Amino acid sequence: MRNLVLLFALAAAGGFIPHDVAAQGAASVTPIADVTFSLRTEITNGQMVFIGNAGPIKDVVNPDLRVAEGAVVAITITNNDGAMHDIAVPEFDAQSDQLVGVGSATTIVFRATKSGTFEYICTIPGHKLAGMAGNLIVGDVKEVVSTALDVAKNPAEVGTPVGDRGPEHVTYDLLTTEVEGRLSDGSTYRYWTFDNTVPGPFLRIRQGDTVTINLKNAEDSINIHSVDFHSVTGPGGGAAVTQVRPGETKSFTFKALHPGLFVYHCATPMIAHHISNGMYGMILVEPEGGLPAVDKEYYVMQGELYTAQKHGSRGLQEFSVDKLLDEKPEHLMFNGSMDALTKTFDMNADVGEEVRIFFGVGGPNLTSSFHLIGEVFDRVYNLASFTSPPLTDVQTTLVPPGGATMVEFKVDYPGKYILVDHALSRAEKGLTGILTVHGEADATIFDSDETIDAASGH
């Protein structure tokens, strides 16, 4: 490494700067680095990663790289797995060439001009998502305890099945809030919610029930809010009578005439803005006699955020009306945050169990191609119709914005099964979840001597 740094100095003295350095602009680079790091690429435990080569970071996966503010930093990576890779620190405009072949190496050199925590990543499409990301920590960065609310919705909160009870009068109290919530590690967003989660609470009633909705807008809100239930027969689905000012409460009562799984959302102009910010949820209207019993039920909704900052930016993300109108979201998520269904909450089942997923799209704009990698839906209640025969043996099902579906399937083999929108570039913006199946493997169903590769999405 010492020789490599001396090479930079000699090359610069002769007017030559390595391509990776020159691309950043010679005026911003000092040839001799103050601190150097050596990393190699690996595929370990089914993930693509960076691993430290020497010193305190030796053999550490995606190690934290700590430097002083103002230091000139050199990071060298060596290809140790044969796949194409690179390395970049986007915050400092540092970008390497691509590496192809075992043993190839490249170095980036840049000045860490500001303090904070910044990502170093592989920019080859899919590689960051597969695990190739770590932190460059510049200066004396103190760990800050975030005060942002975790708005991610627990998918296991599905209410109590109605069973074979008769019609009843049911009352739900909903609170609209405006809170700074956690979007991902290091980033937040000013969400608008029902009951402080995205999506809002899963409401569960019976066909024929009489339902009273009391909608209160929190005193510290600065916007008017409302609620439109797609299950309601009446003006605006209730929105026409629930435009509530901060601190105000309004109510309405409706009769649940139709069974099904229905979206509800805020319907205050600009409606798409309110929905995108997190104001959506679902209400299940079970048919007379209730739904058949299953072993596990989960509540999942897909949403979009339109921010001025690029996906992956740190700090508070700000709403962009232009991107909303252009229908170009920077972030897509299941249940409110980038990792709600991969890190925050676990979805589990045992081999042999029947699983039911209530799935909806808050939107406000994109249609979902809902798919579970490695499984086939035994039954799909298309567009959440309970009075039509379900589709059977379905790989992927379309769900429009403001729409829903109910899928059921038996899990037959252990492993991690990935929930996606099969418009798969959206996974790069956060749209993934994991269902973990536990139990004994059946070699008659699936068998291989190879190691399971998590980077392939399993």
Automatic annotation (TrEMBL):
InterPro entries: BlueCu_1, Cu-oxidase-like_N, Cu-oxidase_C, Cu-oxidase_fam, Cu_oxidase_CS, Cupredoxin, NO2-reductase_Cu. PANTHER family: FI03373P-RELATED (PTHR11709:SF394), MULTI-COPPER OXIDASE (PTHR11709). Homotrimer. CDD domains: Cupredoxin (cd00920), CuRO_1_CuNIR (cd11020), CuRO_2_CuNIR (cd04208). Residues 1-22 form the signal peptide. Residues 81-138 form the Blue (type 1) copper domain. Its cofactor is Cu(2+); Cu(+). This is Copper-containing nitrite reductase. Belongs to the multicopper oxidase family. Keywords: Copper, Metal-binding, Oxidoreductase, Repeat, Signal. Residues 184-288, 335-437 form the Plastocyanin-like domain. Binds 1 Cu(+) ion. It catalyses: nitric oxide + Fe(III)-[cytochrome c] + H2O = Fe(II)-[cytochrome c] + nitrite + 2 H(+). Its EC number is 1.7.2.1. The keyword Thylakoid does not apply. It comes from the Bacteria. Pfam families: Copper-bind (PF00127), Cu-oxidase_2 (PF07731), Cu-oxidase_3 (PF07732).
